[in-house]
Amino acid sequence: MYKGGALVTVTGLTIEQFQSIIAEGVRAQFDEFTKNLQAKEPEEYLSRAEVATMLKVHITTVHNQTKSGKLTPYRLGGRRVYYKRSEVESAIIKLNK
Q1: Distance from CA of residue 90 to its chain's centroid?
Q2: What are the CA-CA distances from residue 7 to residues 12, 47, 70, 87, 88 (Å)?
Q3: pLDDT tens digits, one per residue of 61-95
Q4: What value does the mean pLDDT take over residues 25-29?
């Protein structure tokens, strides 16, 4: 058997065992390939006002959280600032009482 520039000899295996090894390798590669192909939802971008409404805070709080680095702003051309919904949701910290 030829493998990456070297000749490999397989001994001590039945044809069924050899086929099983090959099938498992192909299956693992196929699973990895299909995992990367799964459709991803497009990222939703929110304006500062939408973030403030979502978090039920004043827009000044959104500005302060951005300046402190807790929220990451994005510009999509021009002067408008947007935030990724997923990042805003993950910035919310659970409090243990």
Answers
A1: 13
A2: 17, 60, 56, 51, 54
A3: 999 999 999 999 999 788 899 999 999 999 988 66
A4: 90
Report the alpha-carbon distance of residue 82 to residue 75 in Å, rounded: 6
User: Which amino acid is it at 89?
Assistant: E
* Nearest alpha-carbon partner for 62 in 77, 52, 47: 52
Amino acid at 94: K
Provide the token pair at 45: 């971008």
Which letter does DSSP use for residue 95 in this model?
P
User: How far, in Å, CA of 79 to CA of 91, rounded?
Assistant: 23
The answer to whether the beta carbons of residues 17 and 23 sit under 8 Å apart is: no
Task: Return the sign of the alpha-carbon dihedral for residues 36, 41, 45, 46.
Answer: negative
> How many contiguous H segments (helices) and E segments (strands) does the chain have?
4, 5
Give the separation between CA 24 and CA 44, rounded to whole angstroms.
38
Token pair 């500005």 is found at 63
